[in-house]
Amino acid sequence: MTLKVLINRQPHQLPQDATVAEAVAALNPRPPFAVAVNTQFVPKSEYASRPLDQDDEVEIIAPVTGG
Fold first, then answer.
1. CA dihedral sign of residues 36, 38, 39, 40
2. What pLDDT, in 10s, does the model give residues 6-65?
3. In the sheet where 2-7 sits, what is the strand order?
4. Rounded CA gap, 4 and 13, in Å?
5. Which of 2, 7, 61, 66 holds its CA 20 to 30 A away from the CA of 26?
């Protein structure tokens, strides 16, 4: 069975027991970045323990620099 989630507004299928860590691994973003699930910030220390649910929306956001 798979879990359907949106990662940066794109549909992805992950294992049924997927965590935020697996969502991050699916995109393999270059640090630094922040992660939110359903608009709630998730600290890096919780990536491996924060489970995902069907239809969760994961945002992986890189900081923007400039002036």
1. negative
2. 999 999 999 999 999 999 999 999 999 999 999 999 999 999 999 999 999 999 999 888
3. 10-15, 2-7, 57-61, 34-37, 40-42
4. 5
5. 66
Distances (CA, A) of 34 to 1, 2, 7: 28, 25, 13
Give 15-59 as a DSSP string: ETT-BHHHHHHHH-PPSS-EEEETTEEE-GGGTTT-B--TT-EEE
CB 7 within 8 A of CB 26: yes
Q: Looking at per-residue confidence, does 40 or 66 come out higher? A: 40
Pairwise pLDDT comparison (29 vs 66), residue with the higher score:
29
